[in-house]
Design brief:
The chain is an alpha/beta fold and 247 residues long. It has a single domain, classed as Decaprenyl diphosphate synthase-like (Undecaprenyl pyrophosphate synthetase, 3-Layer(aba) Sandwich), CATH 3.40.1180.10. It contains seven helices and six strands. Strands 3-4-2-1-5-6 form a six-stranded parallel β-sheet, sandwiched between helices. Strand 3, helix 4 and strand 4 form a beta-alpha-beta unit. The mean pLDDT is 94. Bound molecules: (4-chlorophenyl)-[(3~{S})-3-oxidanylpiperidin-1-yl]methanone. The site of (4-chlorophenyl)-[(3~{S})-3-oxidanylpiperidin-1-yl]methanone (M2E) has 13 residues, from helix 2, strand 2 and helix 3.
Length: 247
Amino acid sequence: MSNSDPLPLVLIPRHIAIIMDGNNRYGKANDLGKGEGHVAGKEALDPIVEYCLDRGVEVLTVFAFSSENWQRPPNEVSLLMRLLTATIHEQMPRMYKYRIRLRFIGDRSQLADDLQALMIDAEAKTAHFEAMTLVIAISYGGQWDIAHAARQLAVQVQAGELRVEDIDKERLAKYVQLADAPAVDMLIRTGGEYRISNFLLWQSAYAELFFTQTLWPNFEAKELAAMVLEFAQRQRRFGKTSEQIEI
Ligand code: M2E
């Protein structure tokens, strides 16, 4: 089967998550100025979104800024914040064109008020779109996500609305970010490191993992297509014992 042949829908990942690593190394390798690697990285997402739309992927989640990224040099943090803001503005016409719902996950309380307002506005304006959901993780950490969910259950216990004995993984699952989305099927990391780096810990419990040396600005839809084919082959092997995905 070639990379571009259609796959049966059961073999298409419903949710792809990407750790877009390698922007700074790309900048150094290409003699770009400080931070310019992130500018290059900004361009790489569009063809990936188009591939996912074309293939019927329901949710694409990208790690734009982690909880840990706050510890980067202040100049880089402020550049990333400006780039995030500019990118959201720039992406809006594409969201309308392709009818993509834009959502954000992460600890918004740490973000500037104008960025928070922009995020709310972008979500509201695209909430009715159904072609695909693009999720941008900003100030996100998987441990924050789980702690934040636990805290909401604790509030219910404290209010006498929930008994401790009724807390289980199904109950907690309703309060993590993206509780209403399918679980992550494929977790991809570019840039050559073999870590999950506190990304969607809960949501990726059963995800197939993919790592590539390719630096994020060089990551192309054809490499993603090859990974999706590999995903389908892994599912098929697994499928030998599973009636549900036997085709
Ligand atoms: C992104 C943000 O490193 C980041 C710089 C800004 C762009 N970027 C990478 C993103 O992840 C917002 C939207 Cl709407 C799309 C992509």
